[in-house]
Amino acid sequence: MTDSESVIEAVREDNQTALSRLGSSKSLYADTGGDIDTEPVLRATANAEHAAWETFLEWADSEAHEKAREAFEATAAEEQDHYETVLDHLGDDAYEPREIPALHEYLRGLESTIERVGGFLGRILASKRSKEQVVGYFVGDADPQTAGVFREFGDDLDAQLERAEELLEDVCESDEDRERAREAATGAIEAAYGEYVENLEAMGANPKPVC
């Protein structure tokens, strides 16, 4: 196992409970304010994709490390495409999210390349779980075509995970660097999970049981 693979596995292990709950059926309930229907699901997804597009574009514009900048540019382009695809399904080209998810508030506060690469990893691991629930919603809604679109988003996340692994190899030269990246990844997952808990508790739901 490479050093980068060890970091990824450690982040998964450190955040096993949070990732499990972010991948539960309650994640859609939290993201949609309890209104699990096609339009709210699409709007919640648009919010996430738009925030990711803006985050990685911002990073690309300010990143000095060449490979990291190229990775963030490529990811921003993917997220822009995701956002525009969701708008097509939403049928509302004018819809533009106004609120920034807690995950992206956290990511935008990261300034060093190592921390950004770690945060990038954390965002991917958290997003993979929530995307699975969106796919499951459209499968359950007997809309295999839309489910297929979101499976493709998941494929892009797989590619982004490979990108993150390569970046970890490029930017982390010591155990201390790898620990900083690991902490930033955990911080990203904790931000996403914290908002999930907050949203559920605001609706009087218990965030703990996994269903």
Overview of this protein structure:
The chain is mostly helical. 79% of the residues lie in helices and 0% in strands. It has nine helices and no strands. Helix 1 (3-14) packs parallel to helix 9 (175-202). It is globular. The mean pLDDT is 94.
Overall 3D shape: globular
- Catalogue the unreliable spans: none
Class inferred from helices and paired strands? mainly alpha
Number of continuous helical runs = 9
How many beta-strand runs?
0
Distance linking N and C termini: 33 Å
Percent helix, as a range, is over 70%
Most strands sheet: none
Rounded to the nearest angstrom, the radius of gyration is 16 Å
Q: Mean of residue pLDDT?
A: 94
Describe the protein's topology.
Blueprint: H1 3-14, H2 16-22, H3 26-31, H4 38-62, H5 66-90, H6 102-108, H7 113-140, H8 144-171, H9 175-202
Helix pairs in contact: 1-8, 1-9, 2-9, 4-5, 4-7, 5-8, 6-9, 7-8, 7-9
